[in-house]
Every structure is written in structure tokens, then in C-alpha cells.
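User: Sequence recovery, please. Input:
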């Protein structure tokens, strides 16, 4: 039982990080109808900015406090992501209003490749470390309930708690605030939202900034765990099955979908992987997403789209 719970907790913690990245996809799609293939590149770009700022700021401003460097680097990286959001709206989305979905999709692919290349040109292509002070030693939980307890990595636990807090905050922002209601109005009908005075272009900048903030936190956590490197943008693609499973238009779906896939990956790798020769964790999420598409194309919590002719 203890080993099963270790695997379960590991899956839940990984699932929260998937949910955090998936929220970026969902928020942008709900507000602009764009499936943002650049979300993975945004994670890498934000992580590179924070890692390099954490190195540069102490040298530029002449201080040695590590926590101050991390805090300033986070603020600086967030400012960069807001500028990126403004540029994307001004130079790309604003010029492609009312274009076909495939046009917008190709535009985000172009943004993705540009950000991957420009990020490494601007910040370098080495492997960088973001040390945000999370402890890496394991701890034992429920040692009075199960013999030997449940072994959990502190870094994974803290990362999952940070991701859960941000996911909750973004959900509340989207549901309870005036800006969040404006985002939902834009998602339902662009023209109707404009007719009642909602500034569409400002909303797009806001939602891309929020997605950039989610990408920055995700990049910070993954960068602390794995190091900031080019493959970080590929990690973000693991959120694609989460979005498909939960539904492109559902914030709760992104959360629940991430937890399902995180737990499913870990349990299948441990209990089914040995029978299939291992490696099941690599493709499990995509196979599950494919099965869901065959049965329910809009995802578990997505809105069913009905075209009337």
C-alpha cells in the first residue's frame, strides 16, 4: 500500500505541473480561439530569461543576496513576457483578426520557432540552473500509518503546491473578477463583446500576459528540477494530451485532465510497463488522448460545438 501511495502522489504532483502548462493553452483558446502551439516555447523563453537575469542582476547592480536576485529575476522575466504578449498582439494577432483557424495555428507555430531561436540567441544555449531554494531531500509521510511510510521528494511536493496555488488563483481570476468575466465574454462571442465596449485587443494582451505568467512559473519549477535547456519546450508538449482530455474550453478540465494523466502515467509505468518492456510513460498520455477523441471529441469537460446550417 505504501508503494502504491508513493506512485499515486508522484503522479498527482506531476499532474499539477501539467495542469499549470495546460492552463496557458486553455486561457488563450477561450479568449481568442487560437490553439497556441507557442506555449512550450514561452515556457523555455521565460525560464531562460529568469535564469540569465538571476546571473546578470547581481553583477549589474553589485549585490550578492541570492533571494533578492531570484525575486528581481522573476519580476524582470515577467516584464519580458508582458512585452512579448504585447508584441504578439500588435504584430501577429491584431493583423489576423477573423482569419481562418489554420492561419492562426500556423502563426503560433511561427511564433514558437522564433521564440525558441531568439531566446537562445539572446540568453544563450547552455544548460542553466534556477535555484529557487526548494529543498531536494526526501521525506517520509504517514510513517505511523504504513510500515516505512511513504517516500516523497520535498522538491516535487513544494513544486506541486506552488502549481496548485497558481492554478487555483488563475481559476478564481477567470471566474470571479471583472477582467475574467470579460475574457469569458470574448471567448463566447468576439463581436458581441466588442459591441458592449469590451476592448478585444486589450483583452488579448491580458490573456497572453497571464499565459506568459503561467509559462514563467512552470519554467521556473521545471528549470529548478531539470535545468533550463532546449528540451524544456518539449516538456510543455506533454500538456497537449491534458488539453485534449479535459477540453479546450474548460479551466477545470485542464486541472482534472492533468491529474488524470499524471497519475495514469506513473501507475501504468510501474504496474503495466514491466509487462510491455517499459517506456509506457512516454506514450501513455497520447494514447489516452486519442481514445478520448474517438469517444468524445470535445474532451471530458469541453463544450460541444453544434454547427447549424
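Assistant: Recovered sequence (309 residues):
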Amino acid at each position: 500500500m505504501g508503494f502504491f501511495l508513493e506512485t499515486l502522489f508522484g503522479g498527482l504532483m506531476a499532474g499539477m505541473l501539467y495542469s499549470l502548462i495546460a492552463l496557458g493553452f486553455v486561457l488563450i483558446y477561450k479568449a481568442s480561439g487560437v490553439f497556441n502551439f507557442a506555449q512550450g516555447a514561452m515556457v523555455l523563453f521565460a525560464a531562460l530569461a529568469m535564469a540569465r537575469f538571476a546571473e546578470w542582476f547581481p553583477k549589474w547592480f553589485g549585490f550578492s543576496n541570492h533571494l533578492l536576485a531570484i525575486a528581481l529575476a522573476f519580476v524582470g522575466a515577467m516584464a519580458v513576457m508582458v512585452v512579448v504578449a504585447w508584441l504578439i498582439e500588435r504584430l501577429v494577432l491584431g493583423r489576423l483578426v477573423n482569419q481562418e483557424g489554420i492561419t492562426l495555428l500556423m502563426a503560433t507555430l511561427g511564433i514558437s520557432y522564433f521564440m525558441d531561436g531568439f531566446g537562445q540567441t539572446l540568453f544563450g544555449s547552455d544548460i542553466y540552473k534556477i535555484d529557487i531554494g526548494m529543498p531536494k531531500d526526501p521525506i517520509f509521510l504517514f510513517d505511523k500509518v504504513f510500515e516505512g511510510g511513504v517516500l516523497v521528494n520535498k522538491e516535487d511536493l513544494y513544486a506541486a503546491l506552488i502549481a496548485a496555488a497558481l492554478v487555483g488563483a488563475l481559476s478564481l481570476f477567470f471566474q470571479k473578477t471583472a477582467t475574467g468575466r470579460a475574457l469569458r465574454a470574448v471567448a463566447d462571442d468576439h463581436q458581441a463583446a466588442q459591441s458592449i465596449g469590451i476592448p478585444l485587443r486589450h483583452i488579448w494582451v491580458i490573456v497572453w500576459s497571464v499565459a506568459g505568467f503561467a509559462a514563467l512559473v512552470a519554467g521556473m519549477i521545471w528549470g529548478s528540477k531539470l535545468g533550463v535547456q532546449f528540451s524544456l519546450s518539449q516538456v510543455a508538449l506533454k500538456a497537449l494530451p491534458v488539453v485534449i482530455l479535459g477540453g479546450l474550453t474548460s479551466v477545470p478540465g485542464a486541472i482534472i485532465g492533468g491529474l488524470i494523466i499524471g497519475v495514469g502515467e506513473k501507475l501504468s509505468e510501474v504496474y503495466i510497463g514491466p509487462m510491455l518492456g517499459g517506456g509506457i510513460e512516454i506514450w501513455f498520455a497520447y494514447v489516452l488522448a486519442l481514445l478520448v477523441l474517438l469517444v468524445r471529441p470535445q474532451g471530458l469537460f469541453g463544450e460541444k460545438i453544434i454547427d447549424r446550417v
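The longest strand covers residues 138-141.
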